[in-house]
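Below is a filled-in request sheet from our internal design queue. Each sheet records the structural input a requester submitted and the sequence that came back. We keep these sheets so that new team members can see what a complete request looks like end to end.

REQUESTER: design group, bay 2
PRIORITY: normal
MODE: inverse folding
CHAIN LENGTH: 99
BACKBONE (tokenized):
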């Protein structure tokens, strides 16, 4: 399962990320860029890691973002394996929460 580091969790809760994420979401009219269903997650094409977490050209660059729905996000990160539980989901910070 996808786990964020403490540093990544701080980034995803930052004002800079929330502002960037919200602006990108609006620029895509709230639709998943892969399947045109309602989007949920602003996904980084180049994954965030310890080496680039402080590089705004990676983390806050609209060219590195993609709005995706939960199923498309799951396919990206979990190799096409769909969720087997329907009582949990990922929130906009990437944390697992109860539905």
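RETURNED SEQUENCE:
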């Amino acid at each position: 399962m996808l786990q964020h580091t403490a540093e990544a969790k701080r980034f995803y809760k930052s004002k800079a990320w929330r502002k960037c994420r919200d602006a990108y979401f609006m620029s895509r009219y709230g639709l998943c860029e892969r399947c045109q269903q309602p989007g949920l997650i602003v996904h980084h094409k180049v994954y965030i890691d310890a080496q680039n977490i402080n590089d705004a050209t990676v983390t806050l660059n609209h060219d590195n973002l993609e709005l995706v729905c939960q199923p498309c996000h799951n396919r990206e990160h979990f190799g096409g394996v769909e969720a087997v539980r329907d009582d949990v989901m990922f929130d906009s910070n990437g944390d697992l929460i109860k539905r």
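SHEET NOTES:
- The chain has one domain: 6-98.
- The longest strand covers residues 41-44.
FILED BY: M.R.
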